[in-house]
Design goal:
CATH superfamily of the largest domain: Enolase-like C-terminal domain
Structural class: alpha/beta
Strand order of the largest sheet: 5-6-7-8-9-10-11-12
Order of helices and strands: EEEHHHHEEHEHEHEHEHEHEHEHEHEE
CATH architecture of the largest domain: Alpha-Beta Barrel
CATH topology of the largest domain: TIM Barrel
Shape: globular
Number of domains: 2
Radius of gyration: 20 Å
Number of strands: 15
CATH class of the largest domain: Alpha Beta
Oligomer: single chain
Distance between the termini: 34 Å
């Protein structure tokens, strides 16, 4: 018997409610419905992957992600999971516009192979660390009291880094930063522009935030993803690192961003999947650029691939892996996650 042949693959939808409405420059959500796949090998090992829907990318619907995963599952049955590269390349060729589904399929295959080999995905990827510290995201609410409450709760829970969603409306954005600082004055900040700024506006905003005395560590994707020149303009003049997020989905994108002068890169498996994510990280590291790892709205179990990638490689300076904290989750799913949340720490112990 070939123990690494794919015996079965099951696709389901997973619905989770958010503890608070999640608001960005692109929209608002109060719950998420993700598509999940479990791949089981003939030897009994199983792996899981989860494709998150998106506020910004309206075509990433639960139905579309589910259909794509079902087609990938059908093509994988009976094939050797050790030939995962060919399976994943086929998935990219057919479903490149549904990248979270391809990423989920790849995560399921690779975590099943790791389990068959007697390790977890972090061990399979190098086993660099057993624990990492995550930030916590503050959404782009225009209600100052709501923002203060979220920041105070995060500070009370021990979070030392807060990621603040902003989007180019200067008065609202500054009010949000001030509300966060009033409730969590010692927190270090990551500013997520969600493509909402002009280059000049981005630089003025960072200068204004720094003038308040805030500790800003990173400004993430302030300008539109298709305008790399604008992102590079900000990067070269900004006093803090500027991360390409939506602008980088492939290793070729990463190389273009590095050549243009971007000063940091965010790897997000929903955009790239594991193997392309590793290649993006390799480009960034060869260019001397620090790395962030991000997430979408995955459950704790769906977030496992990103947590294991970060722990396995040790490549990332910033860990924006907090979607599980923002969701009201089923305790059974949390127990099956393959990692443990202890406040701001994600660990394998």
């Amino acid at each position: 018997m070939n123990r690494t042949a794919v015996a079965s693959a099951r696709v389901v939808l997973v619905e989770s409610r958010l503890k608070r409405p999640f608001i960005t420059a692109q929209g608002r959500r109060e719950s998420t419905v993700n598509a999940a796949i479990t791949v089981r090998l003939r030897g009994g090992a199983a792996g899981y992957g989860e494709a998150s829907t998106s506020i910004a990318q309206k075509h990433l619907t639960p139905a579309a992600l589910r259909r794509a995963l079902e087609r990938m599952a059908l093509r994988a049955r009976g094939r050797d999971a050790r030939d995962w590269r060919a399976l994943v390349d086929e998935a990219w060729a057919r479903h490149a516009d549904l990248s979270p589904a391809v990423a989920a399929f790849e995560a399921a295959l690779l975590s099943a192979l790791a389990a068959e080999a007697g390790t977890d995905l972090a061990g399979w990827l190098g086993g660099a660390s057993r624990r990492l510290e995550t930030d916590l995201t503050i959404s782009a609410s225009t209600d100052a009291a709501e923002t203060r409450a979220a920041a105070a709760e995060a500070a009370a829970a021990g979070y030392r880094v807060l990621k603040v969603k902003i989007g180019g409306r200067t008065d609202d954005d500054m009010a949000r930063v001030r509300a966060v600082r009033s409730a969590a004055p010692k927190a270090r900040l990551l500013l997520d522009g969600n493509q909402g700024f002009t280059p000049a506006g981005a630089l003025r905003f960072v200068a204004a935030v720094l003038k308040t005395g805030a500790q800003v560590e990173l400004f993430e994707q302030p300008t539109p993803k298709g305008d790399l020149a604008a992102l590079a303009f900000v990067s070269k003049r900004c006093p803090v690192p500027v991360a390409a997020d939506e602008s980088v989905a492939t290793p070729a994108d990463a190389a273009r961003a590095a050549d243009a002068g971007v000063t940091a890169i965010n790897v997000k498996l929903a955009k790239s999947g594991l193997s392309r994510g590793l290649e993006i990280a390799a480009v960034a590291r060869a260019s001397g650029l620090p790395l962030m790892i991000g997430c979408m709205a995955e459950t704790a179990r769906g977030l496992a691939a990103s947590v294991h990638l970060a722990l396995g490689t040790g490549f990332f300076r910033w860990h924006d892996l907090d979607s599980d904290v923002l969701l009201v989750e089923d305790p059974a799913g949390r127990r099956e996650a393959g990692w443990v949340r202890r406040g701001r720490f994600a660990s394998l112990d």
